[in-house]
Amino acid sequence: MGKDSAPEVTSGIGVLDKSVTVLRAVADAPCNLGELCERTGLPRATAHRLAVGLESHRLLARNASGKWYPGPALGELASSAHDPVREAALMVLPRLREITGESVQIYRREGTERICVAAMEPPTGLRDTVPVGTRFPMNAGSAAKVLAAWTEGATQRALLSDSVFGERALHEIRRRGWAQSAGERAAGVASVSAPVRDAAGEVIAAISVSGPIDRMGRRPGARWAADLLAAADAIQKRLAAGES
């Protein structure tokens, strides 16, 4: 698998583990068979058989250029799962999207990756599209900085060993309460992120606004940090209300 892939987890059921490997590879970005083999390390025949099988169950789909991408059944399955953070976020994200006019997301850290657990996009115009379930490495981007800033000890040091930011940057993010980036995760994309806390005040996710640098500027925090922090606070209040 590629250098940005998640650490391999095995269940002991070979075909299941390989199928999950295919799903994770396609979640990184749409890919054709050659790219799928490169990302997974699977033989062409195996990768093709698994991808076609997942496609038949609508867990994968193909675009006009023939590349596989996450299928609609993944969203349908995810929608039935109880995730208090996602449910609270979906009550808050529409307003944040309306205020900013940009794409908005919620990320949660899983090991050395961050996964998008909720996302909404503006209805028109150029946008930063991040489908739910997308995984990014924790080495770049404002959401990665926020999640790393509130990660402690050896885990944080391990994340910093492969990141474009350092300990001093994380200290400043903790002091300021939010992070921003421009062109770190993807060329031409800017973002600003803030921590989402649970009822006890522990950081459990990051909320982000992202879009083209040409529109958001290279310092998007100057425009959107206050609105982002208000949205994060609204999510925390909803989580607290759900526990009472």
From TrEMBL:
Source organism, top-level taxon: Bacteria
Segments forming domain IclR-ED: 73-241
Keyword terms: DNA-binding, Transcription, Transcription regulation
Pfam families listed in its UniProt record: HTH_IclR (PF09339), IclR_C (PF01614)
Domain HTH iclR-type span(s) in chain numbering: 13-72
Alphabetized PANTHER family for the sequence: HELIX-TURN-HELIX TRANSCRIPTIONAL REGULATOR, ICLR FAMILY, TRANSCRIPTIONAL REGULATORY PROTEIN
Protein name: Helix-turn-helix domain-containing protein
Organism: Gordonia pseudamarae
